[in-house]
């Protein structure tokens, strides 16, 4: 553990443009809480740090509070033996006595969902870590340089529990020309990213409300729902999810008002009303929630609402 911690600190000290920082409260030492600067259009971001427990008793990180976003949660990313990646909310992170736990890319991390503004490299943003034994610990997340390709939680290489996310290579270069017809453009965006001859993608139903939409998809015997957003360049996939996408708090976490979230969910419910139970189960079966974002590089991260 100490070797890993020393490596982490060395990376921070030599790579960060501003000094690493830490907070010590009682037996706990919080080392360099930071957020890689997300894309300007990002609605979510991941927070990382190392937590050292110098005490004789274990502790647990059970929550996070911050004005950075509408919702802040503790998550874990995993990739199974088949290469399928998922990200899920966890109730706590165990901090064993005398050990260091790293919240890092591809593992435990803090998710900020529904960012209240853009984040700029060099800024410090206040947050509160909530521990089972140590209680509330005030810290500041430093905005670090954007994570390079492969440095962030690498969702660009994940199989979206069925969607062939590896198939297309450079996602940023695969955005089709927009026609102005939202359902047509949304289907084209999803197919450009994920459809292959070996794993054809079907997209339906598509529910559009202003600048956001939810589309059901199926591929290779699996399925889910995609949340899409339209910006100045057109539509892009922001989030792939299952049943959790139909929870109002998920949509408000993405920046929608309660009114808009309710209206979008009502539209999805109506659109899916005529589908069979097997298709609904397919959509609901996506494990966790996975942010993709405009650039497809995994800067936008997500949560599970299982």
Structure commentary:
This protein has helices at about 1-15, 180-195, 250-255, 260-270, 275-285; strands at about 20-25, 30-35, 45-55, 60-65, 70-80, 85-90, 95, 100-105, 110-115, 125-130, 135-145, 200-210, 210-220, 220-230, 235-240, 290. The protein is of the alpha+beta class and about 300 residues long. It has two domains: about 1-145, Sandwich (Immunoglobulin-like); about 160-285, no CATH class. Strands 1, 2, 3, 4, 5, 6, 7, 8, 9, 10 and 11 form an eleven-stranded mixed sheet that branches. Strands 12-13-14-15-16 form a five-stranded antiparallel sheet. Strand 12 (about 200-210) and strand 13 (about 210-220) form a beta hairpin.
Q: How would you summarize what this structure contains?
A:
The chain has 306 residues and is α+β, with helices and mostly antiparallel strands. It has five helices and 16 strands.
What amount of the residues lies in strands?
A: 35-45%
Largest beta-sheet details: 11 strands, mixed
Question: What is the radius of gyration?
Answer: 20 Å
> Helical element count?
5
The counted number of beta strands is 16
Secondary-structure element string: HEEEEEEEEEEEHEEEEHHHE
CATH homologous superfamily annotation of the largest domain: PCu(A)C copper chaperone
Q: CATH topology of the largest domain, what is it called? A: Immunoglobulin-like
Q: Any idea how many domains?
A: 2
End-to-end Cα distance: 31 Å
Average pLDDT rating? 80
Oligomer status: single chain
CATH architecture assignment of the largest domain: Sandwich
What's the CATH class label of the largest domain? Mainly Beta
User: Approximately how much helix is present in the residues?
Assistant: 10-25%
């Amino acid at each position: 553990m100490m070797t890993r911690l020393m490596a982490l600190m060395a990376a921070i000290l030599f790579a960060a443009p501003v000094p690493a920082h830490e907070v010590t409260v009682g037996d706990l030492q919080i080392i360099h809480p930071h957020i890689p600067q997300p894309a300007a259009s990002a609605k979510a971001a991941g927070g990382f740090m190392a937590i050292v427990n110098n005490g004789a008793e274990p502790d647990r990180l059970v929550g996070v509070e911050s004005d950075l976003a509408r919702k802040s949660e503790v998550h874990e990313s995993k990739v199974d033996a088949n290469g399928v990646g998922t990200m899920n909310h966890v109730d706590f992170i165990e901090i064993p006595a005398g050990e260091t736990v790293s919240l890092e890319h591809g593992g435990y991390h803090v998710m900020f969902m529904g960012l209240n503004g853009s984040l700029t490299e060099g800024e410090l943003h206040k947050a509160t870590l909530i521990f089972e034994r140590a209680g509330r610990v005030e810290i500041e997340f430093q905005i670090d340089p954007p994570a390079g390709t492969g440095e962030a939680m690498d969702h660009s290489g994940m199989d979206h529990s069925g969607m062939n996310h590896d198939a297309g290579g450079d996602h940023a270069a695969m955005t089709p020309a927009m026609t102005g017809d939202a359902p047509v453009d949304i289907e084209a965006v999803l197919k450009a990213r994920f459809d292959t001859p070996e794993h054809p993608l079907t997209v339906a139903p598509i529910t559009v409300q202003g600048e956001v939409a939810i589309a059901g998809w199926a591929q290779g015997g699996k399925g889910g729902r995609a949340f899409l957003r339209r910006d100045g360049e057109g539509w892009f996939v922001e989030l792939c999810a299952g049943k959790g996408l139909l929870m109002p708090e998920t949509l408000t976490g993405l920046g929608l008002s309660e009114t808009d979230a309710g209206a979008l969910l009502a539209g999805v419910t109506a659109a899916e009303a005529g589908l069979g139970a097997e298709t609904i189960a397919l959509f609901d079966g996506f494990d966790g929630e996975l942010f993709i974002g405009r650039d497809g590089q995994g800067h936008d991260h997500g949560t599970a609402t299982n």
